[in-house]
Design a protein that fits this description.
single chain, 558 residues, mainly alpha, 34 helices, globular
Length: 558
């Protein structure tokens, strides 16, 4: 739980103390309201810290009832929605309204509850009211509700369709673009096409509309038409760096990496543009173009420019011109880039087969008192990574141990070592490191999620995993990785329909091979083999070597 959430109890208690001292509060009668509300408020907080959302929903509602406080009622509503306790959410919401609650947050909560209760008409009405609020807050809240408030993407898409057809979307470009993108993520190309057509009608000649159109065509598997739309934008984008970047992104999404790099190459150039072009050409494995770009920049490499020499070193490294890369890195004159160059130089030495020199240079960096602490810490992490590549787990773990001796309880080193233990199938030690991390930083969402997912995926301690993941969910309820972990532990608990709904929600929020593999495995187990194969294929395209994908394929025999 983040610090802001953890400190809520004390802030709330102070506020209650002052509020209940007023004549208005005292007029309620019926006992000592401070005492009556303090116990459930603390119980709710402890339940949240333990990941017991059902108990947290119960106690937070009791605290809100005892205090008659709108802020506590709002919090009780949010916790009950997270716990999927619709009955308590409805009661807390009613109390929130009775105590004077109003505004966009209340409307968003009402809409979310309506979606959860499968009442799309009420959800549409609340969202329509939200969309009438001026500025970005209203439509932004509506977008958030539709993106993550429903467990059924098809239901959310139907409500969005009704809002579009009813003319409720504000007559501004930004919300139309946002809702068009959401329609694509919800898997409704027909709705995305409808929105794009309306946006083109309302905002003709606007380049961002053309970009949305290209994205919609790409989502509808009309790649050639998408390329035609993008080609029509290129000539007018030379003087607009942001537009060039957006066009390049769309070409990248189409898999046209060389074309994306060519678009970025039109117009004024700077180090960021050069770096992006180099990255695209490297991913495209277009070594011919990358060599030309490298040689063009190399002609200016005699200037003592740290950023340029660092970039040239990285390009030479990708081109496997390791000796040249080493020269560029060693020629970086100063600044933060010099430290990065020293780390990269050690990596190059390892690639050259000069492992002893690589490790010696990292040891030198680790002992350099003038180096920033973060760089010295990263030298231990890189050493461990190089040793892992050499399949020397004992030496790898020794590097982590020395790193922790130099930087006791460093969160980055603990986290990296935990992941390494997990890869080595030593789950007990992975768990020990993650728990140690949580002692140091109890609100670390990454550690809560990692430990919860590890227990769900690699052990049968599913209830414990659920509580850890619930703590992460309480802190970041719209985080796709955490929603994926939540869906996965529900699957392990045998709650397949609930699991599929959550995993689809995670998939709508983030394109990721592991999430797609999880959706596929659940569909396969539920007997929906054709759908499962589509998600398996998507996961293969995104990352064929993904460990979760490989395990899912082995588990299902797909």
């Amino acid at each position: 739980m983040p610090a802001a959430a953890r400190s809520f109890t004390f802030a709330a208690l102070v506020a209650l103390t002052f509020a209940l001292a007023t004549p208005a509060a005292g007029a309620r009668g019926g006992g000592d309201v401070v005492v009556d509300s303090l116990e459930p408020l603390l119980a709710a907080e402890f339940s949240l810290q333990a990941g017991r959302l059902d108990d947290a929903a119960k106690w937070s509602l009791e605290a809100a009832r005892a205090a008659g406080d709108a802020g506590l009622a709002e919090r009780a509503t949010r916790i009950a929605l997270l716990a999927k306790d619709d009955e308590r959410a409805a009661e807390a919401l009613a109390l929130w309204k009775r105590e004077g609650g109003a505004g966009t947050s209340l409307l968003a909560a009402e809409a979310t509850l309506a979606l959860r209760r499968d009442d799309p008409r009420a959800a549409r009405d609340h969202l329509a009211e939200l969309l009438q609020v001026p500025g970005t807050e209203g439509w932004g809240q509506a977008l958030s509700v539709l993106a993550s408030g429903s467990s059924d993407p098809e239901q959310a898409a139907d409500v969005l369709d009704a809002l579009v057809r009813g003319g409720h979307v504000p007559d501004q470009l930004q919300p139309w673009l946002a809702f068009g993108g959401l329609a694509q993520r919800l898997g409704r190309p027909d709705l995305a096409e409808q929105i794009v057509a309306e946006v083109v009608r309302r905002f003709p000649g606007e380049p961002r509309v053309a970009l949305l159109h290209a994205s919609q065509l790409r989502g509808a598997d009309k790649q050639d038409q998408a390329r035609d739309v993008l080609a029509s934008l290129v000539d007018g984008a030379a003087g607009d760096a942001d537009l060039r970047l957006a066009i390049a992104y769309e070409y990248d999404a189409l898999g046209d990496l060389a074309e994306a790099a060519a678009v970025l190459g039109r117009g004024p150039q700077d180090d960021q543009t050069y770096a992006l072009r180099a990255s695209l050409l490297a991913r495209a494995e277009d070594k011919g173009e990358l060599v030309r770009l490298y040689e063009e920049l190399g002609r200016e490499g005699n200037r003592p420019d740290p950023q340029r020499r660092l970039l040239l070193g990285q390009m030479a490294e990708f081109l496997e011109r390791h000796e040249e890369a080493l020269d560029w890195y060693r020629g970086v004159p100063g600044g933060q880039q010099r430290w990065i160059a020293r780390l990269r130089a050690a990596h190059v030495l390892h690639e050259l087969g000069r492992a002893a020199e690589a490790h010696a240079s990292l040891h030198e960096l680790q002992a350099d008192a003038s180096a920033p602490d973060g760089v010295r810490r990263d030298a231990y992490l890189l050493e461990a990574e190089l040793l892992a590549r050499g399949d020397d787990p004992k030496a790898e773990m020794d590097a982590y141990a020395r790193g922790l001796a130099a930087f006791p309880d460093d969160l980055e080193i603990l986290y990296a070592r935990a992941l390494s233990w997990e890869r080595q199938d030593d789950i007990a030690r992975a768990e020990a490191d993650l728990r140690r991390l949580l002692v140091i930083e109890p609100e670390s969402v990454a550690a809560l999620n990692a430990l919860g997912y590890t227990l769900a995926d690699r052990t049968d301690r599913y209830q414990e995993a659920l509580e850890l993941i619930n703590r992460a969910r309480a802190a970041e309820p719209d985080n796709a990785a955490i929603i994926d972990s939540y869906g996965w532990v529900l699957y392990r608990l045998g709650r397949h329909e609930e699991a599929l709904a959550e995993l689809r929600r995670a998939h709508a929020l983030q394109e990721d091979a592991e999430i797609a593999a999880h959706v596929a495995e659940v569909l396969w187990v539920m007997g929906r083999r054709d759908e499962a194969r589509e998600y398996f294929e998507e996961a293969r395209e995104l990352d064929p070597d993904n460990r979760a994908l490989q395990r899912a394929l082995e588990e299902t025999g797909a």
